[in-house]
Amino acid sequence: MPCEMCGKSAPTRSVMIDGAKLEVCPECARFGDDYKALSSSQSSGQSTGGSRTVIEQRLERREKRMGTKDVYAQAKTVEVIENYGKTIREAREAKGMDLDAFSDSIREKKGTMAKIEANRLVPDDKLIKKIEKALDIKLLETVSSGAGQSTGGGSSGKMTLGDFIKKK
Q: Is the pTM of this model over 0.70?
């Protein structure tokens, strides 16, 4: 029988290497512990089956991690609220700060903040967090993406070209 580590055709013996029982040649046996000695010395109640469950758990986690994910299946997404500029301006004025003082306090340019308050620039996630913390407001909301909703198209519930065409 060939060695399960190096592939040499040599007499093999059972050895535990990193929780796995392998049939290895005498040279590769130095990397593990003798299987028979391990099974007789384990008096704590954990048998080699315990190692097997660890391996099975790792395989299950790997399978879950490596599986394909449907990015459209997520039912909810987080987006910036509709009137974020007005909300920011009202909260800033309620705190008694002008645009210069507020932009200095969060270390952003005055022009950038003016564009955000005018709804001409959508802030990135990092800036949203700074504004939310400084003004004690919420600018993000959870919305349904529409996945799984019936479109009224076919009987399958999936959109077709007919859903986009105006019928007379």
A: no
